[in-house]
Amino acid sequence: MAGRQIVVPFGPQHPVLPEPIHLDLVLEDETVIEAVPSIGYIHRGLEKLVEKREYTDYIRIAERICGICSFTHSVTYAEAVEKTMGLEVPPRAHYIRTILMEYSRLHSHMLWLGLAADAMGFENLFMNSWRIREEILDDMEMATGGRVIQNLCTVGGIRKDVPDEMLGQMSDHLKEITPRMEELCKIFSHDSSVRHRMRGIGVLSKEEMWELGAVGPTARGSDLALDARCTGYSAYGELGFKPVVEKEGDCLARCIVRAKELMAAADLVHAAVRDMPDGPVDVGKIKGGPDGEAFVFTEQPRGEVLHYVKGNGTKHLVRHRVRTPTIANIPPLVKMLAGAELADVPIIVLTIDPCIGCMER
Amino acid sequence: MGLFAMTKRALANVIAKPATLMYPVKPAKQFERSRGMLTITIEDCIYCGLCSRHCPAEAIVVSKEDRTWQVDRLRCIICAQCVDICPKSCLSIVPEYKKSVAKPPFVDLYQGPPAPPKPEKKAQEE
Amino acid sequence: MKTQNTTLREIAVGDLVTEAGAFKAKRYRFVQIGCTGIGDAYEINYTFDKNYGYETVRITVHDGDVVPSIAEHYWASFIYENEIHDLYGLMVDGMSIDFSGHLIHTATKNPFRNPPEVTKVEKEKLAHEPKEGDA
To answer: What domains are defined for chain C?
Structure first.
């Protein structure tokens, strides 16, 4: 009955979206038949800028690709350049980078939990999640100087050391906040209004998620145990790590994966502070430029990110390619939206955790 | 239990004091390492131009003949690359923020002292 | 710190679809398609992963060549192939969802194509001359 279908545009301006993305929804009587995405609203051409800035200065730009998952971008870029140049980063720098990456994951997941509550209309829970998030951001500002952009990572290590007393203070403060984080996790998994809005929505099976190349909590909510931290980059190999998975494959399962990852991240921070080695934090002055190419995969809060770096021996890189988890999760989104109700579309779009700033660089 | 999972937290919030600060009556939270703005001790500057060449946002302009150093506040991303690269360590990032302005100029110009006189050549003394 | 296993192989354009089929049969997960412009040729990397062992195959194409799509084995490749088509101007044949150039909106068409057009912009005036007409 082609005559009864209409096309409704969703985005780029929408109250539930943190960043602009456009979807054309083909509807028949409030049920979505198919969704057609369209991107490019905040394409800044950062990959072209790499040819004009030296590789040691470019790390500052790589950090600003995204505002929420910023520290992991700078660590991945630094590891890719270090891999091409064969630099050996001291262990203390690896541990401090790991601690800050886990803090970045804590604040990103709490931001998402707040946005999900806001998308459902549950303002009280939104404010509570962000109230706890403020304490995490204060700790990051105390240690590095920035709430969301840390500016600490550099090629060969980190710029400025974080003293042991400060790390102990951060770990103790995290122990104080942990009961409130556990309460938050319990509310998200048990509250009946949250369950009514999210249970049974946007279901994809394990086989479909594997076929479509999904990454991150989107895949782990469907019993697919994929986590780039298992490869053991940075200090994760020594700290030991197991991915958090849930079985149902719907929006509530992805929400619970993110809530449980908060507790796993807090455990990793305590383990890293306890085992912190001493020593220098960078390799000193670096001569010459990167020659060759390297692929590095790390785990951002949203999934697995790839940085590919190619150099020809000069101080300017030839190519820097970033493949972010959001662009890998767009095909699952298109499949999830087929057959959904119109009122569920905001929750489904939010459940892949869209970070469009990263996706379009 | 599922219907009222939030009740305990909601009641605790009603009784407790607010989590927000009464800014601007109370001062804003700042830490020692907070990145507010970029400043320079202009007396130590040698006008080499390294900070200008390494700035990722092209926010610094240095003039050796006029002995001036200027930073475009709207372009500066406070990344501290210039601080790391300066050979005389005269640049620094301070926690205080600059107050907002509504009209140009958005660029802060620092005029340095005139150049010291060159030392006499030894050959002339002999 | 453990290093990740990544391998890289060069293959011919004609073998691309059979290689993708072989990876699918061995249950490899599809990771990404990335394009680099070097001189007047384009190198396209296809990455697949199994148990955190990442294998990349690379093809080299020139302007005007048609790249075959791997959509018959991996449906999710449409998003990367449309991105290559929109940013680099390469033709890809047989995509599962073809956006015909409308996936990414850019001000100039094919912005990453070699060589880029450069327009010279005048440097702004110094601070002590106030600008007129600004907010």
So the answer is: 5-93 (3.30.460.80)
